[in-house]
Amino acid sequence: MLAFSVNRMFLSLLFLCVCWRHVSCYDEDHEEERHGVDPSGRNVTCDPTSRYRSFDGSCNNLRHPTFGVAGSTFRRILPPKYENGDGRTPRLTGVTGAKLPSPRLVSVTVHGPGNDTADDANMMLTQWGQFLAHDLTRTLQASFNGSCCSSDLVTSGVLHPDVVNGGPCFPIIVDRMDRHFDDVSTRCMEFQRSDHRTDLTNTRQQYNEATSWIDASHIYGHTEDRARSLRSFNNGKLKVITVNGEDFLPENVEATEKTCFKLQAGDYCFKAGDVRVNFYPGLSALHTMFLRYHNKICDRLKPIHGDWSDEILYQEARRLVIAVIQRITYDEFMVQILGQAASKYGLLFGNYSYNSSIDPTLSNVFSTAAYRFGHSLVSDSLTINGQVVETGDVFTRPKFVLNSLKGVTEAFLRGRSHGADRWFAKGMTDRMFEKPNKPKTGFDIVARNIQRGRDHGIRPYNDWLEHFGFPRATFETIGQVYGRVYSSVDDVDLYGGAAGETRAYQGRVGQLYSAILGAQFRDLKFGDRFWFENLDDVSSFTADQVSQIAGLKLSRVICDTVAGITKIQLNAFQTVSPENSLADCSTLADVDIERFWV
Predict the structure, then answer these.
(1) Which candidate among 120, 386, 455, 518 keeps its CA 20 to 30 Å from the CA of 53?
(2) A GO molecular function for this record (predicted)?
């Protein structure tokens, strides 16, 4: 068996570093080792005859084995902008020297609730975006055992000393007249800076704990240990817990209230490849569907290939699940998001050609700003089995999926999405991850996204417009509401500025996010040797198999995995309409499993 070793040390000089080894406040079970050392500098031995992906993303590119590997430093499209150019202090002042507004004040003033809904998009579109995000990116936070919001800071407004000395705390100050957090105990939001590496210029660079590839690592895990912990080692299947005759995700016995609330007898916290599986009912629902889909594939393959081992069944099912997720993402989801720009960037099915010179490693601006556009899509409430539930009451509560996977799925298929714009539901800005029966313990996702951008040194909105060849904005072009909080239009944070853009290319985001998203998803496709359309590799599907995958839609996966759903709209990302009417599940295209063989 041919194998070779590649040392990318010479490519990693810029990012050789020391790293803070804090435990993330989101890494609730501490099961996964942090990537304290930039993986681009390690020796990697690859087997070019391997049919299957590695779990950590290595060896996808045989010339550059660490492209897209878990733990990779985020790419910079533009140099970061830290305070005074010191390479570590988050952006605190604007071009006039005035202090930047509190992200919470920006959120309340510019990004308040609106009554907008998307014309035909449903909540499943929103949910797929989050599901995909957890496959692509995971930014760990630096941990702090105490509180970043000490009483003297709340009353005086003085900067936390960590902000200028490089420590983990970067709290968000809340105005005393805030519409929701209006007492002294809630006038500061906890916020820890992202874990980071320091490059040779002493500049903070953040990294991605996940693999960059669309490889279902959120389902299977991005380490060998995590993957093994999820397997049954019986006929290729994943572990399940059966509740009332239905299979659900296995239990994470080490989960804490940071990511999961057990509110009733029989509740338990789910375990998947990604630790955020319990964050939202729709997310848990999609994880459950693809767990069942994997096991269903194994059940269908076993009678046909009786000589296949558990390992082959597992890997072949995993391989097909990844292909299905890629197909749905590009030919159903991204078409909705980018509209005509999807064709411009080559994201539609057909004419695939792998390019080993492409580095698909996620960019910092994609992960920290552009792909967070979906937070504005979340609606104020869900209607589950006829009961209206506010968004703030569903976070980190597995009971909804355990009680009725069908009810949750139908809620997302029928409920309308908000538009992708500058208005956000109050459940996202006032009550996100609020503790049960403890009002005002939630946080504001918009404020956190803005603060995260400043933490990462993401340059202001106008710098990005100029970089991509668009005219620089003025308060007249983006709205005077921004001028109520920012001293200069050149201070407007990227996240908030791009959120206010008019939809472009008949998609759902504006021109700037279209450019950032389009370029990243193009690289993720054409830089992936294992991409399901690639016919020129040892790992390739046959042309006939690719044709089978291309005909499959999310609606069919839902039909195959959610008991009780017998009719569904063909486009699972749009509400039911005369153009998208309900169809019997039996009429939807499925893959002919007999055509899938080794």
Answers:
(1) 518
(2) peroxidase activity
